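Hey,

Quick one before I head out. I ran the complex with manganese (II) ion overnight. Inputs first:
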Amino acid sequence: MNNAKTTPVKISDVVLRDGHQSLIATRMRTEDMLPICAKLDAIGFHALEVWGGATFDACVRFLKEDPWERLTSLREALPNTPLQMLLRGQNLLGYRHYADDVVERFVARAADNGVDIFRVFDALNDLRNLETAMKAVKASGKHAQGTICYTVSPVHTLETYLEQARRLVDMGADSIAIKDMAGLLTPYATSELVAGLVEAVEVPVHLHAHATAGLASLCQLKAVEAGCRHIDTCNSAFANGTSHPSTEAMVAAFQGTPYDTGLDLVALKEIGDYFREVRKKYAAFESEYTREDVSVQIWQVPGGMMSNLANQMKEQNALGRIMDVFDEIPRVRADLGYPPLVTPTSQIVGTQAAMNVLTGERYKSITNEVKRYLLGGYGQPPAAVDEEVRRKAIGSEPVDEGRPADQLQPEMARLETEIGELAESEEDVLTFAMFPDLGRDFLKGRRDGTLVPEAIPAPSSGGGERPVSEGVPTEFVIDVHGESYEVQITGVGSGSGSKRRVYLTLDGMPEEVVFEAKNEFVQEGKSAGRAKASAPGHVTTSMPGNIVDVLVAEGDSVEAGQAVLITEAMKMETEVQSRIQGTVKAVHVAKGDRVTPGEVLVEIE
Ligand code: MN
């Protein structure tokens, strides 16, 4: 085509954030980003996405890097390219709603440290949860991108999305992003949605579509034909599967057309060569669940959520009932008013669906998060919730229909006092605000000079001396897509030299792998040694998880039905109650312990 008037497509590359988050559990280190920054900076991307909830979390939790330092060093290394971050509205990068003063300070510090474009979203598309963040972005003089979390349900229509986009523009949005986190979009649905949005709002429309079902590049093509000029892609070394369409492929697709991006394919290929080498280093974090999988088009359940659930069911020796859970998910989602399935609603719905199946009775056991959700703690569900389920979960407790953050008092001053001199800056206070326990440990470790990044398991290179324990599986937890997977390793004895052949079992699929034996990689399970529950006074759990809180001590009197423990599985908290009235005779768990179903955790007589 030789049209004189061209309207180039602008590319935002997500290799430094969503690419490695989607494919190698968010483990890429700053040291592997900086060497390629000069080449990335020369490309002429619309933006590079560099920061978000999972990257912040992984920096503090696993890599022992200060996430703020990552941002400032990328800012320095990428002077010519706008930097973008993903912000969960009032949740910022944490897992709860923050008071407005924390949101304002967080946005201001992120802007000062180098973020140019803030993509702001809320899991429920409740725009009240975006208000403060959007205002703060505007106040900082940066680009506020309002986000539509795309989902499919009887109450999500083209018109609801167009209305949401108009309201976002009214709130000051400089652009609108369609966020298809699960890979639900199809090419023709994209055409319709984009054409509607381009008509409805004056600001640019961006498309962020995961390639999970293998459809995203087709969706982008149709989006561009329908008037979208901004697409998110990922360097080919970290593209496709649960990540995004390849930057190089999309650039090539539009070459010589009116949509030509003008980007240099040869330079992009060199960047790909670099990242392909980087990816090898993180091979231990690769998972079969990041491959293309059309399931989301069948069950509307995101891939990461499916594997997570499969793991839960396997631990319950109930993998055979996984299809029951997939059938139950749409029912729970309907009961809860059709929330889009994205962090944290994907976990809320998934865990409740698993519990409904495993306990043999729907809503016999209800997680604290479902209760909080039904009390209005996350905002307004897209549609009315099921009245009977609500009554079962929260009885006659009043539902808060206001903006959740209106219940919160300013909290920066309290956070500053609580973290004290461990914080050397406001950024440190905000790190602590995002992750109270983890953040404090991180800041303490930094002060004491004891921060050590997790070891990167080497799949096939020599070195270490200590053998992996044989026979008994050892467990560790990896995070993919912000969701935790428990992986078991069983040593199978001899390897040559320091290399060990082991079976790595993820979601019931043992795979033989060879890697360097290192004890840092293998953490001993802590759950062994507890007796099996056999009496009514033996408090146990129905789901494997961690102890978040122990609410009673030896000698305490408890009522039947009183909560004695809070456990957490898949980031969901559940109260565990005593079945009988009596006195606490023994407590066999402490905060942080790993527990499995059937163990005696508390004894009551
Ligand atoms: Mn994404």
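The pocket of manganese (II) ion is lined by residues 18, 181, 208, 210 (CB under 6 Å).

Talk tomorrow,
K.
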